[in-house]
Specification:
It comes from Sphaerobolus stellatus (strain SS14). This is BTB domain-containing protein. InterPro entries: BTB/POZ_dom, SKP1/BTB/POZ_sf. It is built from 16 helices and nine strands. A hairpin with a 3-residue loop joins strand 5 and strand 6. It is elongated and about 90 Å long. The protein has a five-stranded mixed sheet with strand order 3-7-5-6-4. The longest helix has 20 residues. Helix 4 packs across helix 5 and helix 8 runs antiparallel to helix 9. With 381 residues, the protein is of the alpha/beta class. Among the domains are: 134 residues, 2-Layer Sandwich (Potassium Channel Kv1.1, Chain A); 108 residues, no CATH class.
């Protein structure tokens, strides 16, 4: 009976050729008309006005055993495959700006289908989890990250701001927003980002994108090509990858400038390290990297490889004649501090490196406290 015209206002339309009586759809344009309802009434089926509210209209499948199929519901959401869930209009309106606007514009006196059926072009299982979260039957910690991303798309699409923020906060488990969180993560397969990256872009999950780009930089080029990314996204990726590759050469070059080519060769009276000690250690880094020049020591994962350099520096020793050359304890501590400072600077620069923002704070990551027993606020608009 209705579809959406300019400005999002519902307008009447002629009935398409469909046997399922939808009153409107979110983006697939399926609608119904009085002719459709009359045909249902004359074909031996129960008239819409006399059918029990918890009985699905013709052509729609339901599962009365589902927890989110409510016998006292007054709206039916229909997912892909014409699978319906009977829910409450007030719950949808209180949590989702999309449905609040939708119902405020509809002239309910002209809707003859009971209950009204809203066609949503979404996956049935994802819609069910979406509703379970709205009704607080589940928490975000009950579901895996892949499903969190799926419902994040729905919360973004239907303007459920509170739940969207909670989903983004949960993504910290996979896409950290601080170096401390990153260091606590297990080193899992980086290819998982291939499954999630486009969803992060589509849902504008800005706080998760810097680390997602970082993971992409460690993957083979053919895998990136298979994502079908837009030109601007690819530009951000290539520019960021080029900048990342310079992190370790820049770090070692600065070490050389300070401790090999610099005027000072000691830190205090107790330090016995000479310029040659630092020179030998840096040459050892190059040898371990299989390179002969500093500028060739590129790395797709400098955050990890800088930690490896720190371990190598602490354990470094070299035999010269009868002497064993190694860093003194003070120099080891100075070297470790230099590595930590470089990693922090690198992490802080990730948003700017990939053309996203000048800092992590500018990305506006969600400040949400997630509790296992948290019940969402009533109004998320």
């Amino acid at each position: 009976m209705f579809t959406f015209g300019p400005g999002g206002k519902p307008i009447s339309t002629t009935a398409p050729t469909t046997a399922v009586p939808f009153i409107f759809g979110d983006d697939n344009g399926r609608t119904s008309s009085s002719k459709t309802h009359k045909a249902n009434s004359n074909s031996g089926t129960t008239p819409d006005s006399k059918r029990p509210r918890d009985v699905a209209p013709p052509g729609i499948t339901t599962n009365p055993q589902s927890k989110v199929h409510h016998r006292d519901g007054n709206v039916m959401l229909v997912a892909q495959g014409n699978f319906g869930f009977l829910v409450h209009q007030t719950v949808l309106v209180n949590h989702c700006g999309y449905f609040a606007k939708l119902f405020s514009m509809l002239d309910c006196s002209k809707i003859t289908l009971v209950p009204p059926a809203i066609s949503l072009s979404v996956n049935k299982d994802h819609l069910e989890v979406f509703l379970q979260l709205l009704y607080a039957y589940r928490t975000l910690y009950d579901i895996d990250i892949e499903t969190v991303l799926a419902v994040l798309s729905l919360f973004t699409k239907y303007d459920a701001k509170g739940w969207r923020a909670r989903c983004l906060a949960r993504l910290d488990e996979v896409f950290p927003t601080s170096l401390q969180e990153y260091d606590r993560l297990p080193r899992n397969d980086q290819t998982v980002v291939l499954k999630y990256f486009k969803v992060l872009l589509e849902t504008d999950a800005k706080a998760a994108l810097p680390f997602a780009y970082y993971l992409l930089c460690g993957l083979p080029q053919e895998k990136i090509s298979g994502l079908g990314l837009l030109e601007n996204t690819l530009l951000n990726y290539y520019q960021g990858k080029a900048r990342l590759s310079l992190a370790i050469p820049k770090f070692i070059k600065e070490l050389s400038a300070k401790f090999v080519n610099g005027k000072q060769n000691t830190f205090n009276d107790a330090c016995y390290c000479s310029k040659r000690t630092w020179e030998e250690m840096i040459a050892n880094f190059e040898q371990q990297g299989g390179k002969t020049r500093l500028q060739d020591l590129t790395s797709p994962d400098p955050l990890v490889n800088l930690q490896s350099l720190e371990t190598m520096g602490k354990a470094f020793s070299s035999v010269s004649g009868r002497c064993t050359i190694r860093l003194c304890n003070d120099c080891k501590e100075v070297f470790s501090g230099a590595v930590r400072e470089c990693r922090k600077e690198l992490w802080d620069s990730l948003p700017q490196m990939f053309g996203l923002a000048t800092s992590w704070e500018k990305l506006g990551g969600p400040k949400v406290f997630l509790s296992t027993f948290a019940v969402p606020s009533v109004i998320d608009k």
